[in-house]
Automatic annotation (TrEMBL):
It is a multi-pass membrane protein. GO terms for molecular function: ligand-gated monoatomic ion channel activity. The chain crosses the membrane at residues 190-212. Residues 13-72 form the Ionotropic glutamate receptor L-glutamate and glycine-binding domain. It comes from Trichonephila clavata (Joro spider). SMART domains: Lig_chan-Glu_bd. Keywords: Cell membrane, Glycoprotein, Ion channel, Ion transport, Ligand-gated ion channel, Membrane, Receptor, Transmembrane, Transmembrane helix, Transport. Coiled coil: none annotated. It is found in: Cell membrane. This is Lig_chan-Glu_bd domain-containing protein.
Amino acid sequence: MINIRAVCSNLPPFVIVNDVNGSLVLEGFIPEIVKAVAKKMNLNITYIREPHDDYGAWENNAWTGMVGMLQRHEVDFVLNPDLPRAGVLEFAYFTNPITVEAYTILSGKKIQEAGFFLYFSVLNNSLGTKVGVIIYTTVDILLLFIPVCVPTSPLHIKSEFKVKTTLTSATSSCVGSSEKYILRKNKKRLSLFLPVLVTMWAVGISLVMNAFQSLLVTKLTLRKSQPYIDTMEDLLKTDKTIGIAPVEINFEEALENSSIPLYEAVLEKVKRNFLPQDVVFSDDTMKKVQKGKYCIFHGHLILKNKLSEYFKEFSSCNLHLSDHYFYPFSLTIAMHRTIPRSLYDDFNYGVTRLVDADITGKTFKADLEGSKLCTGYSDTSLRPLGKRPRLKNCGTQHRL
């Protein structure tokens, strides 16, 4: 059995470190992969936790964090996958990529409550045409036939009939004074226009019922939302939202010296607000993110994991995860060059085989579904009842 040492940090979802009665208990898919490879290769791994859960950066002509421990050969490899860096190649090998990560932005969303007219979007597109035809027909009937129905007696010719005459009084006048428009000669005097009015009333009621039925089905809680920050350009346009990032991820390495003006301008605004990871993802900070005070820069895989956990705890949230990814990079495991090349090759081969088995994909799929619940919780959309979904069962289709 070969004894080797590994340094680790509590940086979910890759590696989760719990201190139980003075001993480290590791969870996450990276420890699962490494433990499986170690069992196959007959390796005895001793895990050492980095005190500050820091990947490491080049400071004062020396590496800090986990990378610094690897450089000083205090450990044989770094358990947490990290971005391959040129300076680390001087004393370390890198395995094949575990996964590909990219930075993105997590922010809150401005909620716009639905107005009165917004609710009518649930109806079919033909509704406007139908309502227009009804209104046009009604106006034509009133303009064409009300003058005929107006009593000619001097006692009734008064100016009060001009604008104040309602549809009810006009219909009554037609029924009471125009025998040539009577449908049948009996004591019941029906106006020729009453069937038209009844038809219009029936059509109007059906449209109103359809509208309310649609609203009940799609809920009356329709809300539209807009993220406070969706792109780096949005952050540069406002001073109301502050960009923050965990100090442990060395976010400045992705943006500085990039020769991209946008990246460098964003870094100038964000570098004053690097905070410990526990502070960045604290409940208080997340509430401020939802209100638009902060936005968080981090890898999209880690943010999806945090959103999934947040939704499980609070069951509701009003957050937006941007689809505008930037600075994609591979995550690999670094091993010290003093390890025999044959041992490194076997370890790398074992890790690659397990990654090919899509262990990482299965892990991130669950986080993706959880994050969708969190980012889409506050949004509802309306659709007409005319669109009928279909269920497929045993090769047949059944309409609902």
